[in-house]
Design a protein that fits this description.
Helices cover 45% and strands 5% of the residues.
Length: 111
């Protein structure tokens, strides 16, 4: 993943500015971690979507597989994911997800 983009994304996830939401990129003032990425990069997205545009996301080094895994970690449904992580992030709970700070730490080590 592009290092400068990753840095800005992790900083935003850790900032406390964005409240974590589930099941879509943005809704009711809450965001999926991918919605936060869309905000910091300016990648246009539809708030009701589950993923960013694959072509634009791949341009910054985020694959479709990465997006699926991140959305499922965010939403707490990794068991439904066809390719779970080698190591689950600290604080992850199936059915509940993970807070942005713990997810940012996982992203920093694994993407």
């Amino acid at each position: 993943m592009n290092k400068a983009t990753k840095y800005r994304w992790l900083k935003a996830l850790r900032s406390g500015k964005y409240q974590r939401g589930r099941d879509k990129l943005k809704g009711h003032g809450r965001y999926c971690c991918l919605g936060v990425l869309g905000e910091v990069t300016g990648i246009p997205y539809s708030p009701d979507d589950h993923f960013l545009n694959h072509g634009m996301a791949s341009h910054i080094g985020l694959t479709e597989t990465d997006q699926e895994l991140l959305a499922n970690l965010n939403d707490g449904c990794v068991k439904a994911c066809s390719h779970g992580p080698q190591e689950f992030p600290k604080g992850y709970k199936e059915g509940k997800g993970i807070n942005f700070k713990d997810l940012a730490n996982w992203i920093q080590r694994h993407l």
